[in-house]
Amino acid sequence: MTTLNILMAQLNTLVGDFEGNTAKVIDTIVQAEARHAAPVVVFPELTLSGYPPEDLLLRPSIALRVQQSLDRILAAVGDAWVVLGYPRMRDDGLHNVAAVLHRGEIVAEYSKQCLPNYQVFDEKRYFVPGGAPCVVQIQGVPVGLSICEDIWEEGPAASAAAAGAELLININSSPYHRGKRQERWDLVSGRARQTGMAIVYVNQVGGQDELVFDGGSFAVNPDGAVSAAVPNFEEGLYWLRYAAAGRRLEGLAVSPPMDELEATWRALVLGVRDYVDKNGFRGVVLGLSGGVDSALTLAVAVAALGPDRVEAVMMPFRYTAQMSVEDAAEQSALLGVTHKVISIEPIYEAFMHSLAEEFAGTEVDTTEENLQARCRGVLLMSISNKKGYLVLTTGNKSEMAVGYSTLYGDMAGGFDVLKDVPKTLVFQLCRYRNTLGPCIPQRVIDRPPSAELRPDQKDEDSLPPYDILDRILELYVEEDYSAQAIIATGMDRDHVHRVVRLVDLNEYKRRQAPIGVRITRRGFGRDRRYPITSGWKIGE
C-alpha cells in the first residue's frame, strides 16, 4: 500500500526576501528528508517572493531572482517531492505557479487559473491565468495541484479530478478576517465531497503590512471530514499521511477552533509583531491617555514585543481627568513598560502665543482641540526619531470611519493597531485581555469614552451611541448598503444620514492615515478605495 508522508510547511516569509525565503525552503526540505524517505513537502503560495509582492512583480529583475532561488533549491532537493509556489515569467506574461520539484528537476509547473481581483487582491494586475489542470504521479499517486482562489471556484478542482487526480494539494496565501477559518473548512469540505478527492490545504502565516495570514493549514478526506488541522497564527512544520488504498489523510489531530475574540487578539498581536520586526524598529512608543483605545493598544504591543520594547507616554492637559493619569500609570505598572509623563500645557501655550494674531477676533472651536492633539503628535514623533521607535496610533475603526480624529495629531504615527477594530469590539477585546491576567483597569472600560479635549466632553455628545454607530458602519462600509437600505432595517433616519455623510466626507483623512491590522471583511485601505473628490450623493 502506497503511503505519502506529507509535510505542511506553514511558513512566515518576508516579501521580496528571495535569499531569506530560499534559505527557509532549503532548511525545511533538509529537515523533511532527514525524517522520511521521499517526503512530499508543501509550501504556501508564492513562497519565494512572499505574498503579496505587489509591484515588485513588475520589476525587470523578478525572473532572474526567481531562477537564482530555484537553482539553489533544486541543488538541495534529493528524493523529496517539493510543492513550491513562485512567480514564473513566460512568453505570454507572468504566472502564479505551483511547481513540483524532485531530484534536482522541475517535474511540473501548474499556473493558477482563478485570479482574485476583489477586496485586498489585485492579481489580474500582475498575472495571466492558466487554463489547464496539472496532475503529477508521486510514488504512483495521481496528485493534482491548485492555488488559493482555484479552490473557491468549482472548475479547477473538477478538472483536476477529471484528469485523474485522487489527492489535491492546494497552496495558499489566504489572509485572515473574523470567521475565516470556518469559511475555509466549509468550502474545502464541499469541494472534497463534490470531486471525491482528498485535499491538503496549506496556508502561510504572518503579518504583511495591514494583512495578517493566520495559517490554519488543514486536510480534508473525500467524505468532507476535516481529518487534520494545525494551529492558527503559529509558524511550524506539520506532518500527515496519505494512504492511497483508502484515499485517506490522517496523522494529525484537529486543532480546536479558537474563540473569535481570541483569534482577533492573536491577529492583532501577530500583525504588530511582524510589522515592527520585519521593518527593523527597535520598539514602539504610544500615547497612553487613560482611555480604552490606548489601553488596548498598549496591551497588544506588550503581547507582541514584550514590555522592554514598549514606551507609554501620558501627555496631560488642563482637561485631562486625574483618573486618566492614574489609570495610565496603573496599566503601565501592571505591564512593566517604560512610562513617562510629559505635559503639553507649555507647548500648547507656545503655539497659541504664536497664533494669537491669526486667531484674533475668533471664537474658540475645534481648532484649539485639534492643536492639543497635534502637540501630542509632535512629542511622539520626536521620541520616535530620537529612539528609533515606531509610533503606534490608537484610533479605532469607528473613529476612522467618521473622522473623529485629528490629522497630524492622534493620527500621526506609523501603525494603527485598532484601525479595523470597531469601538464595540474594542471593549470586548479589553474584557478578553483581562481574562488572561490583570492588565486594563476596570474603570477604563466602564467610564464613558471621551477625547478629553474640552471640559466634560463625551464621545456621544457628537456621535450616536457606539452600538448604533457600529451597526450603521458595518452595513455601509462592509456590506455596501445604501443609506435608504440601512434605514429600511429600522435604523434612525437622522443617525444614518449623519453617519453616512461623515464617512463620505472623511475619505481625505483616511487616505493619510497610517496602515493597521485588517481583521474584518472590509477594512479601510487596500479593501476600500473610494475617491476623495466626488459628487456621490448619500443614499445611493
Q: Quick check: average pLDDT?
A: 94
* Helix content bin: 25-40%
What distance lies between the first and last C-alpha atoms, to the nearest angstrom?
A: 62 Å
What number of structural domains do the residues give? 2
Helix/strand structural class: alpha/beta
Strand order of the largest sheet: 5-4-3-2-1-14-15
Radius of gyration: 26 Å
> What is the name of the CATH architecture of the largest domain?
4-Layer Sandwich
Structure summarized in a few sentences:
With 540 residues, the protein is of the alpha/beta class. The chain folds into two domains: 3-251, Nitrilase/N-carbamoyl-D-aminoacid amidohydrolase, CATH 3.60.110; 262-460, 3-Layer(aba) Sandwich (Rossmann fold).
Keywords for this entry:
38% helix; 17 helices; 7-stranded mixed β-sheet; Nitrilase/N-carbamoyl-D-aminoacid amidohydrolase; Rossmann fold; 2 domains; single chain; alpha/beta; 540 residues
If you had to describe this structure to a student in words, what would you say it looks like?
The protein has 540 residues and is an alpha/beta fold. It has two domains: 3-251, Nitrilase/N-carbamoyl-D-aminoacid amidohydrolase (4-Layer Sandwich); 262-460, 3-Layer(aba) Sandwich (Rossmann fold). It is 38% helix and 20% strand. It is built from 17 helices and 20 strands. The protein has helices at residues 18-35, 62-76, 123-126, 154-162, 180-195, 260-278, 292-305, 322-335, 345-359, 366-387, 397-402, 423-435, 442-446, 466-478, 483-488, 493-505, 507-511, and strands spanning 3-10, 40-42, 81-90, 93-102, 105-111, 135-138, 141-147, 167-172, 198-203, 205-208, 211-214, 218-220, 226-229, 236-243, 248-250, 283-287, 310-314, 338-341, 389-393, 415-416. A seven-stranded mixed sheet has the order 5-4-3-2-1-14-15, covered by helices on one side. It is elongated.
